[in-house]
User: What shape does this take?
Amino acid sequence: MKETINEQQLQQRIDDLSAEIQPQRDLWQGIERAIEIKSQVQPASEPRASNGNIVRANFQPLAWAASIVLAVILTFNYQSRPEQAPQLTAVEMIEQQYLQEKQNMLVSFGKPNLDTLPDDIRQQFDEIQSARESLLTALEDDPQNADLLNLLKWTQKQELNLLEQLYSPKWQTI
Amino acid sequence: MIDAQQLFASQQEKEWIELAKNGDRHAFQQLYQLHIGKVYGLCLRMLAQRDQAEDVAQEVFVQVWLKLKNFRGDSKFSTWLHSVATNTVLSHLRKQKNWMQRMFSIEDTHISEPTVNEHPELSDLDKTILKLPEKARLVFVMFAVEGYRHEEIASMLNMAVGSSKSHYHRAKKLLQEWL
Assistant: This one.
């Protein structure tokens, strides 16, 4: 196979790489906000190696939901606007659409009883629900935040996908 | 002259670290300004996704704030920060993978195309690195760009040393072909 550059040329390019790449937006505000929140809810101790490395002994059941919440906290720069009345129109629309879609889906699957699902599946639904509620809470402060709204839609989609995987005939035959 | 400037910068950084350890957020912001380029560069090269790189870079600084009291100055701050950043990226990847596996019962997932076009200022090599397969990219960045040894990489990525070398070799070949 013909190579366009040799090893030496590649090494030269590696040596020339800039050590720094600047992000395209200021990340500080999100960090500051997260620090503020974290310092209020920080647990007494966190497992860590002696060299300061982060240690995760095992995957926590709520980790993914928590990571979404953390992503929300970190990603978005909360602009506190206490004088602004909450406007949940967009959120309400998205929620209504999702509830309708979920309802239609459940009807098409013969209204299965979700309470009888195995514990691990129920746990997944609970985690998604928890993430959704966290997003709704965050949207109360920043109802027009497009990224938050997109994340809410994405979270709703995960629940619908899970339902589809569980009850759709094509999945049941697998 | 340069030595004097470096010495001053180093002293200034030490002051900011001490102030930040005592809860001074302005000092911590100065540390952020000083190091964000390197941290974000590491995150972007390892994750190949702008949004994820931004999120994880933020998480790195939150972790640093929470753990700063543990930094005793035995090593350079930049070295310690680098270690926190690498571990935060890998932890992020593990969580993401774990969730994807549980949700979709699949072994490995390439979530989306790398966001090369969102960083037009990147060098050709950086743009090509972002297109590498995940493991090859991680190993290549950690070995060739960040200076880790294969033994360290193997331990951090939970693979054999030979696999690390093999991924590095593959990454190099792909880069040579694509550049």
Observations:
- The helical segments of chain B are 2-21, 25-47, 50-67, 77-104, 124-129, 134-145, 150-157, 161-178.
- The mean pLDDT of chain B is 87.
- Residues 116-179 of chain B form a domain with the Arc Repressor Mutant, subunit A fold (CATH 1.10.10.10).
- Chain B has two domains: 1-112, 116-179.
